[in-house]
Amino acid sequence: MDEKKAAILGEIPRLRRYARSLLRDRDSADDLVQDCLERALLRLESWQTGESPRRWLFTIMHHLFIDQMRKVNRRGEAAILPLDANEAQAVPAEQAENAASREIIDALQAISPDRRAALVMVAIEGFSYAEAANILGVPAGTLMSRIARGREELRGLLDDTARRRSIRIVEK
């Protein structure tokens, strides 16, 4: 039993990263991770020994996220919160890589949650298409479509950002 708990604890950084990519709010993301861990510990017997807990935990977290979004939509509250002031970049980036990274993160946060979840699962978390489709509870074709549309949307947002950066304001 302790081995299982240790394996679950090892996945917390990945769970936090995924939760933050979904919710864009540190506190809400931490709450989602806590709910996920609580549910996992209550249902520890459903995790098959010898398997990595990663896919199991991500599936639990995604289901909790979907449930949370449904509750928010029923209540009519804002579903996704803006970044906190302390999470915003306090000092302008001095290196092009930092600015580019910030633009990519901002663009990723601007796309729809379904597409963002699919992209994060495959491109950042390293799940295969089949694993990600299983975790998200969608057919593989739907996952691939979401990834393709998400990439297209990201390219559009990043191209627009690059164009805005290249425009110089000239005052007379």
UniProtKB/TrEMBL annotation:
One Pfam match: Sigma70_r4_2
UniProt KW keywords: Sigma factor, Transcription, Transcription regulation
Domain called PhyR sigma2: residue spans: 9-62
Residue span(s) of domain RNA polymerase sigma factor 70 region 4 type: 102-154
UniProt similarity note: Belongs to the sigma-70 factor family. ECF subfamily.
Protein name per Swiss-Prot or TrEMBL: RNA polymerase sigma factor
Source organism (scientific name): Mesorhizobium caraganae
